[in-house]
Amino acid sequence: MYHVLSAHQFDRIQLDQLFRMADIMEYNAKNGGTNLLQGKIMAALFFEPSTRTRFSFESAMMRLSGSVISTENATQFSSAIKGETLEDSIRVISSYADVIVLRHNEEGAAKRAAQVAGVPVINAGDGSGEHPTQSLLDLYTIQKELGAIDGLKVAMVGDLTYGRTVHSLSYMLAKYEKVTVYFVSPENCPIPEKVKAYLDERGVTYFEETDLEKVSGEVDVLYMTRIQKERFPSGEEYLKAAGKYVINQEIVDGMKPNAIILHPLPRAGEILPEVDGDARAAYFRQATNGVYIRMALLAYCLKEQQLERDLEALAEVLK
Amino acid sequence: MYHVLSAHQFDRIQLDQLFRMADIMEYNAKNGGTNLLQGKIMAALFFEPSTRTRFSFESAMMRLSGSVISTENATQFSSAIKGETLEDSIRVISSYADVIVLRHNEEGAAKRAAQVAGVPVINAGDGSGEHPTQSLLDLYTIQKELGAIDGLKVAMVGDLTYGRTVHSLSYMLAKYEKVTVYFVSPENCPIPEKVKAYLDERGVTYFEETDLEKVSGEVDVLYMTRIQKERFPSGEEYLKAAGKYVINQEIVDGMKPNAIILHPLPRAGEILPEVDGDARAAYFRQATNGVYIRMALLAYCLKEQQLERDLEALAEVLK
Amino acid sequence: MYHVLSAHQFDRIQLDQLFRMADIMEYNAKNGGTNLLQGKIMAALFFEPSTRTRFSFESAMMRLSGSVISTENATQFSSAIKGETLEDSIRVISSYADVIVLRHNEEGAAKRAAQVAGVPVINAGDGSGEHPTQSLLDLYTIQKELGAIDGLKVAMVGDLTYGRTVHSLSYMLAKYEKVTVYFVSPENCPIPEKVKAYLDERGVTYFEETDLEKVSGEVDVLYMTRIQKERFPSGEEYLKAAGKYVINQEIVDGMKPNAIILHPLPRAGEILPEVDGDARAAYFRQATNGVYIRMALLAYCLKEQQLERDLEALAEVLK
């Protein structure tokens, strides 16, 4: 059975295949859809609310003509007791659905689920763990917008210490050739040592910087994230740091003509709305790509499962 | 792109067309449905819960073979931050869905959403603003039940100062010929001056009254609404006022044989259950009509959008 | 119109028919599904959350190609008032959906709903009243696993005073021949007199026991339920009682080779996970059977309703 638990599970060849599938999914979605998953059911099992991610997965499933059962309140999975194990819930839902999309607050939850599930599990974020479909759509957007990832200069900006997305993106970029990474953050929330060690091992060039404008004109990709207020000792210091990393039209005007600005969204002031109309503002296209990537993953998991079942049935007949 | 933001956007000819479409939708719904919107996705984006309105829209979309992604908890649209702008949420959902049904607590929210949406927006109520599909289903029910709206006598009863539905219905009735309106309310919650000024300008005859039984025998339509307790200085005065406007079988017996009683529902004692079996009690039929009106609006918005996209694609080819 | 309000409404012949239908539904579900209810809408109207039961019904409806409108928050059915009557809500939803699945906290709610509904109502649990689909899936599982119900020895274990499922199962077993029932409970929560009186009347042999291990080796079916902490005067006494009724591998090893262990789930420690892999652990298969039983019931209700409507239409034409 094929689960999507971590972005790391994909090697370069698989990424290329996935992105080609996503291209085809976009074509399907824009041309009347496809019946690929007709009759299949996806369970969206969210232990914490994330309507954006849930909608993206549900939209993907419906574009494939599949059906959806859904909760953002999975902690109340049973009215009878609190504290049914995740394992029991997953086992039961395996008989209701053909694929489970799991969002959980605990790191490692997706892996635990996959160990007992009777159907494929897709990790839609497990606490401080992984959120592989976000990483994959980020990477897919870069490739789609710029034609290739090899050789690109990528800046990641904001709170880099706790930002799950920038860590994942760093790891994924290391699978490509001659990428240069610029980590731009306030001094109190730098990129962690483990990420740098990972890049060192793989020979990825990177720089650390606190001044956004020193790099914004150099890079092909400007990946913005939120500065989180609670990291700063005082509101004053927060404002000073946050104010340094605000993308306005002036900064965009200084960027390369073919560069792109990405953001995992929601934004909270890091990118001014005045920039939205610029062709380099790619963050809403990025959100759209999420649907195509998720369509590709759902299709892959379920078709692979169908094949397994068919083979089992065949083996049974031949026995 | 065609949005449904206000009942005012429909002129008399468009209303007639819409009501004919709703008739056809009823036929479709009762005869095995239609595949008109197969492959299309509706997002029900509710910033405040209103299961009744949500169910009505979702049922309408499903009767057209469309799919639905849905939340009544859109304030939690993102788990990451509070206060993403409505505009950003709408932009992102535009890539998940083909039409957005928006319920919001702030007046003007639907219009703001329409300005940035990549897909049609239907206003499902924005605070003290508009709730156009309610007005349209009210008007449709009157026409369907009584054959025509011109020349009718319509009483509106209850708290007329804050009742959004009765204001909208008043404005809509002004589009018809020789309608007479009776405003029946306690003295402390009369119909506002602005509504009366509007009717004056358009030459609509109206009367103000506090005694329901003086008009109930005269009118073709008795439109009941709730009296809201918090408007009254004391519980005693509330009960006195509320008690004056309770439809019982005796009052119904004194009504014209072909008159109808409407109510936007839910009711809270203004109409006794003993009346439900009377042929003049049209409020549950009114709720049913809501599905047909919403089917007609969804079909219109999405077919118009399809046409636009096809024309764009054609223009692209011809370029 | 055919409602599913109580497990009692089914006689032995109807149960056999239902179980045959459930077998066919399983075949359908595993072989690409069926379009039996295409174009039909099920409303899941839950006045208290029970994601497990809701998912099971929604999955069943979708396996039949039907659509679903759904809320676990039906107490907020209207944002306008608290306390709309259940009857009014049901009347309105009858115009949105083709079948209503109702979960309510008040005993008798399903029956009240059925009296005013314009469409079939299926009781998904009404307070301390009935939860007929649970009883039916329990019974179906026994028959499916063991081939027949006549002549079986069935133990029910746990809090038998308040356990709705064990009461219902007792009543249902009385419809079969030569069943022997063992009630195993702590002394302070025995099976109620009314259940015993019912079995006495119908000549069903039963025994009361406090020691699980005295019966576990004898029976064909071990039906486990939760011991509820709040029934015990002290935490210490609870632990003593609860600890007596924990199924571990040692107990399972002492059971008949073809016996089965059932549990309505969720479990809270009554069955250790070490037992899950044993072929006699049938509780997850039991949950799966719930989907097939609900498919059969939905199909039956809606096909019966279609037939009624067709006959009415025919009568209209012939008039």
From TrEMBL, chains A, B, C:
Positions contributing to L-aspartate binding: 82, 164, 226
Domain of life from the UniProt record: Bacteria
Aspartate/ornithine carbamoyltransferase carbamoyl-P binding domain boundaries: 3-143
Catalytic activity: carbamoyl phosphate + L-aspartate = N-carbamoyl-L-aspartate + phosphate + H(+)
Residue span(s) of domain Aspartate/ornithine carbamoyltransferase Asp/Orn-binding: 150-301
EC top class named in words: transferase
EC number: 2.1.3.2
Keywords: Pyrimidine biosynthesis, Transferase
GO molecular function terms listed in the Swiss-Prot or TrEMBL record: aspartate carbamoyltransferase activity
Annotated binding of carbamoyl phosphate, by residue: 52-53, 103, 131, 134, 265-266
Pathway: Pyrimidine metabolism; UMP biosynthesis via de novo pathway; (S)-dihydroorotate from bicarbonate: step 2/3
Listed HAMAP family: Asp_carb_tr
Protein function: Catalyzes the condensation of carbamoyl phosphate and aspartate to form carbamoyl aspartate and inorganic phosphate, the committed step in the de novo pyrimidine nucleotide biosynthesis pathway.
SUBUNIT field: Heterododecamer (2C3:3R2) of six catalytic PyrB chains organized as two trimers (C3), and six regulatory PyrI chains organized as three dimers (R2).
PANTHER family noted in UniProt: ASPARTATE CARBAMOYLTRANSFERASE, ORNITHINE CARBAMOYLTRANSFERASE, MITOCHONDRIAL
Stored NCBIfam families: asp_carb_tr, PRK00856.1
Family named by the database record: Belongs to the aspartate/ornithine carbamoyltransferase superfamily. ATCase family.
Protein name from the UniProt record: Aspartate carbamoyltransferase
